[in-house]
Specification:
Elements: E1 11-15, H1 20-31, E2 35-42, H2 49-62, E3 67-71, H3 80-99, E4 103-105, H4 110-123, E5 135-138, E6 141-144, H5 152-161, H6 178-185, H7 192-215, H8 224-228, H9 232-246, H10 254-265, E7 270-276, E8 279-284, E9 287-291, E10 301-304, E11 309-311, E12 315-318, E13 335-339, E14 345-348, E15 351-354, H11 355-361, H12 366-369, E16 373-376, E17 382-384, E18 400-402
Parallel strand pairs: 1-2, 1-4, 2-3, 4-6
Antiparallel strand pairs: 5-6, 7-8, 8-9, 10-13, 11-12, 12-18, 13-16, 14-15, 16-17
Helix pairs in contact: 1-5, 4-6, 9-10
């Protein structure tokens, strides 16, 4: 049995659960003398989890293979699958960065690939890839799956024939879970010709997705106008592409995409919208993006007693330079620099103008408004509001700029 996409000059991190799939991959890596170590996470969600870790440690010692164990201390009682996924991939990433592993190996096999595809069809998902890809990036981790060409039964036979220890996760037999139901009622009963038909279908579906991907300018996916000119199928693909770059477990349904397109088409230029729990859409005039945290005002307040330099997370100023273009004189000190408030106003050419109105007229994106600075003189009067320019360019000659 050959391992695809692997290079003996590189070193790998094997994600191991002590199940037959990952233990088969352990056996093949050791047998073919690949340079690798193992990483296992003990979530403490099953009675046998401790014994599985001990079993891996004992077996790995025979081959002088390093095993990294992450012992989860926090209680996991909600969003279990997503939380566990985030925990283990952060663990993998930290190990790869710290010890220089070239990639993380996952023991997904052909049955997993087919199950995933059938689930995608059942749920009417709009994936950016059908089934499971042989190589991908997940949470910044380079992932390789060298066993996708082999059936689960083949992997278990290798373990049995070579006396490789493993443990069976009892939860895999719970057919109330969709994946398990498909696994036991559909995939395990497939004839060889049925498998070939499904695999051919997956390849064709991915070929069409690839054509669509090549027709889309991914560098313009943050532009409202560009996304609105795409057809609906391409919009589904494009928006899912953006969302999965934030969290690979996120998926937008056609209903989600339809609602998002309505928001992008609406005359309201600015705002944040809940897509679903843990995902927000931020629309800011001609552009938009997704995020996992709600945008909240951030209060800040700094003082400058005399002409000097202030470098903060929100702005940079060097008032040792000429500040006449900022409407600031020595008599205005001490200055206060803080975030803008709804009650703020400024005198411009003898007229009283609301500060927030100026930001709207300048088309300042709403998230920037939450942290936009204003400068007050010693009397607490707003004497300067930095102008917003979409085409702003940095220069060493600037005495003040917003970060």
């Amino acid at each position: 049995m050959t391992l695809k996409n692997l290079d003996k000059s590189k070193k790998y991190l094997l994600a191991c659960s002590f199940g037959p799939d990952s233990m088969t991959l352990f056996h093949l890596l050791a047998k073919n003398k690949y340079h690798f170590a193992c990483a296992i996470v003990n979530y403490h969600l099953r009675e046998e989890s401790d014994s599985e870790v001990m079993g891996l440690l004992k077996y790995a010692k025979e081959f002088n293979v390093k095993v990294y164990v992450y012992d989860v201390k926090e209680k996991i009682d909600k969003n279990v699958e997503t939380t566990c996924r985030e925990i283990r991939y952060k663990f993998f990433k930290d190990l790869c960065v710290q010890f220089g592993y070239d990639a993380t190996l996952i023991a997904h096999h052909q049955d997993d690939l087919i199950e995933t595809y059938l689930m995608q069809k059942e749920r009417q998902n709009n994936p950016i890839f059908y089934g499971i890809s042989a190589e991908t990036m997940i949470y910044g981790v380079n992932v390789i799956r060298p066993l996708l060409g082999y059936k689960k039964s083949e992997l278990q036979n290798i373990c049995d024939e070579n006396n490789v220890p493993y443990s069976i996760d009892k939860t895999n037999f719970d057919i109330s879970i969709m994946r398990n139901k498909i696994r036991h009622n559909v995939v395990s009963k497939m004839l060889e010709r049925d498998r070939e038909r499904i695999l051919s279908e997956i390849n064709e579906a991915n070929s069409k997705l690839n054509e669509m991907f090549n027709s889309i300018d991914i560098h313009r996916l943050c532009e409202v106008e560009y996304v609105l000119q795409l057809d609906f199928t391409s919009q589904c693909y494009a928006l899912n592409y953006l969302v999965k770059n934030i969290n690979p477990s996120f998926s937008l349904s056609k209903k989600n995409v339809g609602q998002l397109i309505k928001i992008l088409k609406s005359p309201k230029p600015n705002g944040q919208f809940v897509v679903f729990k843990g995902l927000y859409l931020f629309k800011e005039y001609d552009f938009f993006e997704f995020g996992v945290n709600k945008a909240e005002p951030r209060e800040f307040k700094y003082s400058l007693l005399c002409p000097g330099i202030l470098d903060t997370p929100f702005f940079h100023l060097n008032f040792k330079m000429d500040t006449s273009d900022r409407n600031i004189d020595f008599d205005d000190y001490p200055l206060t620099i803080r975030n803008i408030k709804k009650s703020d106003f400024v005198i411009i050419n003898g007229y009283k103008a609301k500060a927030q109105r100026l930001l709207i007229d300048w088309k300042v994106p709403f998230r920037k408004r939450m942290v936009w600075p204003v400068i007050l003189n010693k009397n607490g009067e707003v004497i300067y509001i930095p102008r917003y320019r979409k085409d702003f360019k940095m220069s060493d000659k600037l005495s003040f700029y917003v970060k």
